[in-house]
């Protein structure tokens, strides 16, 4: 688990911010789909340059929607950021088209390993070089193969025939080829065997460390995320309910009880929203 200084005023329950100059700042955004279905309700978070920040939460909390809001994909699903602001390297990006954001260095590795199945591994990487257009940078597949030697061995193979873990590696490799300054990773562990998850998370951490790329990591596998992230936010129903350095979150009694499921017989309390009530009740009982 990476160490992170305590944020100023970042007490559990009050969304704060990790220390360091932000690569990304999401400020109090509300997101609706189809002009009516509200999914994000005043969500704020920050990702400092060169850091890994985990975004956790139960199914349907709005994690994927948050990533789509940042990478500009919402309009494709008739979704919109209705209020609030998203800043990348200090500039507003909440109404910028996704291909322009990709060129500016935001790479979104979407849930479900999106690779071109009929293209080879090599061809997939060449296609990903698009993100470098106009930035005066050259794609470097050699770097990708250095991080993912298994892909080098299969470079002439069609991506559709790779294993799930190899496809996830290729999806991350494609994103990295664009030399991003911010990577959005949506559930890289999804559907993979624990040993493969360990392998991929080790590589993600190495990429962060060596390339200095900031990362916002959405994960259901909280322990895997806590293992590499510097700071974490936990969401419920479209807003952050608790945040802090991962070293603190993992030891926090409420996180353990309501999120990690280390219960002590209070299993009917299934959400952070019950925390205040629960604490009040505990005082009455004692
Ligand atoms: N295109 C869409 N149109 C309408 N509602 C949507 C759309 N995409 C997501 N939603 C709704 O928004 C809510 C949040 O979904 P989202 O996928 O962002 O959550 P999540 O936290 O990523 O969940 P999971 O962990 O299950 O992937 C859900 O209630 C979902 O049904």
TrEMBL record:
Pfam families: ABC_tran (PF00005)
Entries under PROSITE patterns matching the protein: ABC_TRANSPORTER_1 (PS00211), ABC_TRANSPORTER_2 (PS50893)
Record domain ABC transporter: where: 24-262
GO MF: ATP binding; ATP hydrolysis activity; branched-chain amino acid transmembrane transporter activity
GO biological process, any: L-amino acid transport
InterPro entries: AAA+_ATPase, ABC_transporter-like_ATP-bd, ABC_transporter-like_CS, BCAA_Transport_ATP-bd_LivF, P-loop_NTPase
Keywords: Amino-acid transport, ATP-binding, Cell membrane, Membrane, Nucleotide-binding, Transport
ATP-binding as UniProt keyword: yes
Similarity comment: Belongs to the ABC transporter superfamily.
Designated name of the protein: ABC transporter ATP-binding protein
Origin species: Ramlibacter lithotrophicus
């Amino acid at each position: 688990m990476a160490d992170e200084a305590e944020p100023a005023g970042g007490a559990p329950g009050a969304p704060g911010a990790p220390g360091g100059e932000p690569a990304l700042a999401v400020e109090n955004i509300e997101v609706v789909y189809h002009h009516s279905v509200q999914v994000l309700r005043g969500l704020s978070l920050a990702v400092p340059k060169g850091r890994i920040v985990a975004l956790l939460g139960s199914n349907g909390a709005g994690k994927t929607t948050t990533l789509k809001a940042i990478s500009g994909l919402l309009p494709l699903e008739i979704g919109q950021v209705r209020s609030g602001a998203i800043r990348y390297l200090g500039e507003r990006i909440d109404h910028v088209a996704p291909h322009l954001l990709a060129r500016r260095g935001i790479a979104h590795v979407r849930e479900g390993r999106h690779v071109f199945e009929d293209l080879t591994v090599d061809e997939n990487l060449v296609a990903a070089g698009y993100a470098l257009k106009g930035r005066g940078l050259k794609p470097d597949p050699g770097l990708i193969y250095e991080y993912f030697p298994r892909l080098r061995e299969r470079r002439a193979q069609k991506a559709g025939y790779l294993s799930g873990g190899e496809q996830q590696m290729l999806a991350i490799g494609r994103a990295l080829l664009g030399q991003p300054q911010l990577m959005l990773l949506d559930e890289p562990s999804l559907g993979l065997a624990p040993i493969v998850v360990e392998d991929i998370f080790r590589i993600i951490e190495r990429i962060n460390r060596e390339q200095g790329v900031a990362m916002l990591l959405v994960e259901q596998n909280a322990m895997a995320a806590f293992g590499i992230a510097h700071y974490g936010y936990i969401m419920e129903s479209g807003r952050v309910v608790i945040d802090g350095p991962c070293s603190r979150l993992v030891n926090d009694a409420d996180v353990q009880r309501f999120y990690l499921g280390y219960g002590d017989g209070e299993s009917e309390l299934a959400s952070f929203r019950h925390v205040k009530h629960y604490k009040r009740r505990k005082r009455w009982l004692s």
